[in-house]
Amino acid sequence: MKALVCHQLGDPLKEGDQAPLKLSKEHPRPSGAAIKPRDVRIQVIAAALNFADALQVQGLYQDKPPLPFIPGSEVSGIVTEVGAKVKSVKQGDHVCAVTRGGAFAEEVCLNEGAVLKLPSGVDIVSAAGLPVAFGTSHVALLRRAKLQKGQTALILGAAGGVGTAAVQISKAVGARVIAVCRGAAKAEALKRLGADEVIDQSAESAPLRAQIKKLAPKGVDVVYDPVGGKSFEEALKVVKWGAQILIIGFASGDIPKVAANIALVKNLTFHGVFWGSYMQNNPPVLQRSLLELVTWLDQGRITVPVSHRYQLDNYREAFRTLMERSAVGKVLLLVGQGRSHL
């Protein structure tokens, strides 16, 4: 099968001998010819890129698979084969799935617990961007921070995949959303997704904390941060007493340090949210979360905004779009039949 394989660690944008990624046209099928009783084989239609994929290829992510490996953690596709004990899906079903590696290929084979059947009205291509970004935001905001109607959520890095998901999930439960981004086009897109207030850092010279304070004089209840760095430090200066701080990632490359006395004085709760680890440690949480998200998607309460679509062969351009932060929403790699959806 065709697959994008990481043979050495390095910059995903590099070419030639220095390129960590190579497109293989004869990679072995996952699980070989036979599958386990509870496994599901999926013909991949689309796979979504996440910033974690770029970090993993560079060796900078917390989850470090042995070389060589196929990157990618979320897909959508069509079930082609099921194990003898699989009951949740059948051959021909449209599904999305969490892979924890292996997504950037023509085929994946997964335990049925990682596979979710899509309702007939849900677009199979955009559904590739649902599991990780929306799953992360759903677990973080609703299970960990317990965001409530009427509270104010501050979403940093709001124009990315997890950010656009966080904006919509916050609005779905009735919260007020302050979204932070860079660029007028991103700001307009976030308003269309429902953000109540948008801070465009490229258009403002005032410190971020001053801009937030102007919009939320009494402070914010929840901080959702996939960025890290200076933005995180600024956000901590404008939180309410008892606020919930969600640490999602460090897209800036700068991991901030927090003085413990700040947490003590303001009674803050810090949550580290590594969504993928739930797959090993508490799978039912993920399954319940994804079931609710698919229901919301079918009802039109949320949408998966797709910013860019690329054929698998054009993976380098897809990574470039992701790493240069040109996207508003998800970046997808289209595989097999998915190529007709460019």
From TrEMBL:
Q: Where is the Enoyl reductase (ER) domain?
A: 16-333
Please name the GO terms that the record assigns under molecular function: oxidoreductase activity; zinc ion binding
**SUPFAM superfamilies on file:** GroES-like, NAD(P)-binding Rossmann-fold domains
Q: Which InterPro entries match?
A: ADH-like_C, ADH-like_N, ER, GroES-like_sf, NAD(P)-bd_dom_sf, Quin_OxRdtase/zeta-crystal_CS, Zn-ADH-like_protein
Q: Which SMART domains match?
A: PKS_ER
Note the superkingdom of the native organism. Eukaryota
What name is this protein filed under?
Answer: Enoyl reductase (ER) domain-containing protein
What species is given as this protein's source?
Answer: Coccomyxa viridis
